[in-house]
Amino acid sequence: MTSSARPLLNRRLAEFGTTVFAEMSALALRTGAINLGQGFPDTDGPEEVREAAVRALRDGRGNQYPPGPGVPELRTAVAAHQQRRYGLSHDPDTEVLVTAGATEAIAAALLALVEPGDEVIALEPYYDSYAACIAMAGGTRVPVTLRPREGRFRLDLDELRDAVTDRTRLLLINTPHNPTGTVLTREELASIAELAVERDLLVVTDEVYEHLVFDDAEHVPLATFPGMRDRTVTISSAGKTYSFTGWKVGWITAAPPLVTAVRSAKQYLTYVSAGPFQYAVAEALALPESYFTDLRTDMRAKRDVLASGLEEAGLTVYRPSGTYFITADIRPLGETDGIAFCRALPERAGVVAIPTAVFYDHQDMGAPFVRFAFCKKRPVLEEAARRLKNAR
Ligand SMILES: *Cc1c(COP(=O)(O)O)cnc(C)c1O
């Protein structure tokens, strides 16, 4: 221990000392409440994908350091997926990089592309690692707030335009969006793309929920818009799509100079990871279309169970078009402080949720919103829905 008065945690990270997830998970454990706070599934992904991992382990594939960019089988499978689904063609050797989950991809992209003093625009509320990674890169985050209007959280394009300055380096976009469940529309994405081209900005886009879109919503990668292919780093991951969040297999697709830049940072973070799992995810990416359709159908039904429960409990629900989260407004219950509400909810109703305020810089704007995860078994969600009637 140092005896000086200087804090141990450096200034860049001082505001990120603890996360609300730890507090809420501890509360869930102590009270026996149903944990709809943290977003991980309570059922593992497909048996055949798990078996593929076992086979790779047994056959000695990936037990030693895999190649820095990722095993060729996975890079080829990622490129094939992008081509098949979105018509995006990527060279597996120069335009795909495997990472330790999307988390490392985000960190490596920001550490590689952001110079101290650069401004990074992120949609608020934002995924919690964005703020910390921008800070680690020495950048300044500039939040643009998604505002609830007519049933969904929307991006105000004028506000986005006004947020761009001469110091803006990149736009950090997330669609389908955690925590609001918004899927940016083709029109919104086209405007983001136009702005990026006009102001010559890089774009890092987190698309880990690309397969979790419901009803009429459609996921369109930003990289497909005119002028975007060469300025966009597209991030995805196996965690959410295949319900293997513990495997931490993610990837980026981008033009060669961007992949090279991101790889320069990535090689000193983990270097490589998850060898045998990379082979298994290569097989997962080649699953028939029915896998993705069934995943969506199952998640949509779960969404509806939880959404109805929350509505019956009296909250205003923003029924998500994507992701496995529901953001709800607690004001109809006469409550205004989501943090206090979430601290009381386990005792009151036996359910744990996350106050969305922690994902905002403008905490006042996020104060009345609470996030619930619905990637849980049907009976768990049904029981949560029953219990939530005691939330008043
Ligand atoms: C879960 C999540 C991630 C992290 O993905 P990993 O592959 O588990 O690292 C990144 N971004 C968003 C928006 C997420 O919800």
From TrEMBL:
Could you confirm whether the keyword ATP-binding appears in this record? no
Residue stretches in coiled coil: none
- What GO terms are given for molecular function? kynurenine-oxoglutarate transaminase activity; pyridoxal phosphate binding; succinyldiaminopimelate transaminase activity
Quote the function comment for this protein.
Answer: Involved in the lysine biosynthetic pathways. It catalyzes the transfer of an amino group from L-glutamate to N-succinyl-2-l-amino-6-oxoheptanedioate (N-succinyl-2-l-amino-6-ketopimelate) in a PLP-dependent reaction, yielding as products N-succinyl-l-2,6-diaminoheptanedioate (N-succinyl-diaminopimelate) and 2-oxoglutarate.
The superkingdom of the source organism is Bacteria
Q: What is this protein called?
A: Probable N-succinyldiaminopimelate aminotransferase DapC
Q: In which pathway does it act?
A: Amino-acid biosynthesis; L-lysine biosynthesis via DAP pathway; LL-2,6-diaminopimelate from (S)-tetrahydrodipicolinate (succinylase route): step 2/3
On assembly, the entry states: Homodimer.
Q: Which organism is it from?
A: Streptomyces pilosus
